[in-house]
Design brief:
This protein has about 70 residues and is of the alpha+beta class. It is built from two helices and four strands, in the order E-H-E-E-H-E. The longest helix has 12 residues, at about 15-25.
Length: about 70
């Protein structure tokens, strides 16, 4: 499955790296791509809410862009 998430509080490459490292620890993440304040994610075997909760645990806001 694919989703586009809007990330609040992500301002630099270090922020992106923190999020990327946290998401790469989850099973089911196939691809992560950042574009400005958006995160394009390809995933399976995991719920989107788990992905969003993981991002929030790192101190960033995240919600699905419809």
């Amino acid at each position: 499955m694919k989703a586009i998430l809007k990330i609040k509080g992500m301002h630099c490459a270090s922020c992106k790296k923190v999020i990327e490292m946290a998401l790469n620890e989850l099973k089911g993440i196939n691809k992560i791509e950042f574009q400005d304040d958006l995160l394009k994610i390809d995933y399976d075997k995991i719920e989107l809410k788990t992905i969003i909760e993981t991002i929030k645990e790192e101190g960033y806001g995240a919600y699905e862009k419809v």
